[in-house]
Design a protein that fits this description.
422 residues, alpha+beta, 7-stranded mixed sheet, 6-stranded mixed sheet, 13 helices
């Protein structure tokens, strides 16, 4: 065996997002030589944080949920220095602003849930029953429920049109990045369960700290940044610089459209697009770490990130994040700022625009019936993983990467057994 053969990887993983990192770590722990190829200058895929003039700018507004099983298994949460959001939301409705909070975590807000204040007695009962079921039933049971749209599931749960339109649609539109609530109800129930059981928060160093911590667990020389792959070949991969990197097994762990380009014949999934605007101001327009949602859907949601964790901006500056559906357009920043003036009840004309991020394919379109998990096998010794192969969430990406590693190891074991017997 030559020195070059000794250094050739057993497996090439393309894409250092959450799925790719999880897959590479599991394969490495199993004793395989793995190379993780990433086109950009850092890990995380869409889950990255930029640093600009003392600001931490996540590439699109994102929250981190501590309840996900893969998160609990893989991450040292204490080292992320997590800071929580308020367990609830402020909703701007046609009749004014209302607060919905989890009384089990914020007893002082329980008064807002008295029948008739925000929710009728019937809606309180229906929402309580839905939440209790999603929290108490095993996740495996929720995954086997008949699938339908989230909109149909809310009607079936007995919630009134008023509560759906004023509270649930505005909130869930920001979760699913679509305002028709056409997303799979099975996915909705799992998300609702995770929110009720976990804490929504942000790392002090930005959302990018999550993939960075995961990548820090890779063996030395596994990760190769700024190494774009242009094609998956019969013998490995072709790099953008024209060189080839051979490997018997290749795992494509990119976003959906890139995966479809690298693996001809793989259906290209549809995706949701979101745009996040970051504005700075000298005075916080809301002195609490609470998400604000808008029943008019002029914006999906907005929050003062520096109320969640002050590390997101220089001292004495408030950083406001606001997200809207679809892409940016001329005049949209000004329109967003006008709506923020109404939502926060303050003059926003002096706010400074710090950055705008449009994230295409931020989430896969997950209409029912949506398979919550699917095999990563594409062709012999060719695999594909990512949230588009599971669910559009941190849990989905990590679980898909985990499944890819498991299926690779299973198949390599079969190959080796067959070769030993011939």
């Amino acid at each position: 065996m030559t020195d070059q053969q000794r250094t050739l990887p057993d497996v090439l993983v393309i894409g250092a997002g959450l799925a790719g990192i999880a897959c590479a770590r599991d394969l490495s722990r199993a004793g395989l030589r793995v190379e993780l190829l990433e086109a950009s200058d850092g890990v995380g895929g869409r889950m990255r944080t930029d640093r600009k003039d003392g600001f931490l700018l996540d590439r699109g507004f994102q929250v981190f949920n501590t309840a996900y099983p893969q998160v609990k298994r893989r991450l040292a949460l204490r080292d992320l220095h997590l800071r929580p959001f308020t367990p609830g939301v402020l909703a701007q409705t046609s009749t004014g602003r209302v607060r919905i909070a989890d009384p089990t975590r914020r007893p002082g807000a329980a008064g807002s849930l008295l029948p008739g204040r925000v929710l009728s007695a019937r809606d309180l009962t229906a929402l309580g029953a839905l939440t209790a079921r999603d929290v108490l039933l095993p996740a495996a049971t929720l995954k086997r429920l008949p699938d339908r749209t989230t909109s149909a599931a809310l009607v079936r749960a007995g919630l009134s049109p008023r509560v759906v339109e004023d509270l649930l649609r505005p909130f869930l539109s920001g979760v699913f990045l679509e305002d028709e609530l056409a997303t799979s109800a099975r996915f909705f129930h799992l998300v609702w369960r995770s929110m009720a059981r976990g804490t929504l928060c942000l790392p002090a160093a930005g959302i990018g700290a999550v993939p960075e911590q995961l990548a820090a667990g890779l063996p030395d020389d596994t990760l190769r940044l700024e190494t774009p792959v242009t094609a998956v070949t019969d013998t490995g991969v072709l790099l953008e610089d024209g060189s080839e990197r051979p490997a018997a097994t290749v795992v494509v762990a990119t976003d959906g459209p890139t995966a479809a380009r690298l693996l001809p014949g793989l259906p290209a999934p549809d995706g949701r697009t979101v745009t996040t605007y970051y504005h700075a101001t000298g005075t916080s327009p809301l002195t609490e770490p609470t998400l604000v949602v808008d029943s008019s859907l002029a914006v999906l949601n907005t929050c003062v990130l520096t109320e969640v964790t002050p590390t997101y901006a220089p001292p004495g500056t408030a950083l406001v994040s606001t997200s809207v559906l679809n892409g940016d357009a001329p005049g949209r920043d000004a329109a967003v700022r006008r709506r923020l003036a109404e939502l926060y009840g303050t003059d926003t004309s002096h706010w400074t625009s710090i950055a705008t991020y449009t994230v295409e394919d931020a989430l896969p379109v997950m209409t029912p019936p949506w398979p919550l998990s699917r095999s990563t096998r594409f062709a012999p010794q060719r695999y594909v993983c990512g949230d588009h192969r599971a669910t559009g969430s941190v849990q989905g990406a990590l679980a898909s990467g985990t499944r890819a590693a498991r299926e690779v190891l299973t198949d390599l074991g079969h190959v080796r057994e067959a070769s030993c017997s011939t």
